[in-house]
Write a structure and sequence with these properties.
Blueprint: E1 2-11, E2 20-29, E3 34-38, H1 49-54, H2 68-79, E4 86-89, H3 93-100, E5 118-119, H4 120-126, H5 143-164, E6 167-170, E7 173-176
Parallel strand pairs: 1-4, 4-5
Antiparallel strand pairs: 1-2, 2-3, 6-7
Length: 180
């Protein structure tokens, strides 16, 4: 099953000990289920002005935030024993690091989780940069809203790719066009 994910994070790349500090994570499964959590452990002092202005205002009450261990356990349950899990994100590199660090590292991921995240931006570039991107969500930089957008972009790329190769797409399924 495909899982579309997004994270919001603070990066401390200019410090002696750089890190990617998870703020929130959103995941949309292709079967329609959704997961969203905000970390109670990120440090506001690690946030640059852009994060302060664009991400922090979208967060819920501090009392509803969760520890990284709780988020990790809930994501593990959300994905379940899916040994064919496939994760997709937009500009996925930092999202994937923040995701993997919930378990400690890539080699600590649950059985069946892939050791890579598919990148929607790269897939879009490989399609030739067609004008198919959905409009930005009104609550852009909320991790769940962005994960939903990622699913929309995946479907747009999939449809575009199939149609340009002579397939029709119905309900996400590609079928060869009938010859006339």
């Amino acid at each position: 099953m495909k899982y579309y994910l997004d994270t919001e994070f603070a990066e401390t790349g200019k410090n002696i000990s750089p890190t990617i500090d998870l703020i929130s994570i959103g995941i949309v499964a292709e079967d329609g289920r959704e997961y969203y959590a905000e970390s109670s452990e990120f440090q506001v002092s690690n946030c640059n002005q852009w994060v302060v202005d664009n991400v922090l205002p979208l967060l819920g009450p501090v009392g509803e935030r969760k520890t990284r261990n709780t988020i990790r356990d809930e994501i593990t349950a959300f994905v379940g024993g899916d040994i064919l899990a496939e994760f997709w994100a937009y500009y996925a590199d930092y999202d994937w690091v923040a995701f993997c660090w919930l378990w400690g590292g890539m080699t600590d991921l649950p059985k069946g989780f892939p050791m890579l995240c598919m990148d929607l931006q790269q897939a879009w570039i490989q399609c030739g940069r067609p004008e198919i991107k959905p409009p930005d969500p009104t609550d852009e930089h909320n991790a769940l809203a962005d994960a939903r957008w990622n699913e929309q972009l995946f479907r747009a790329i999939h449809t575009y790719t199939c149609v340009t190769k002579g397939y029709t797409v119905s309900n996400g399924e590609a079928k060869p066009q009938q010859e006339r």
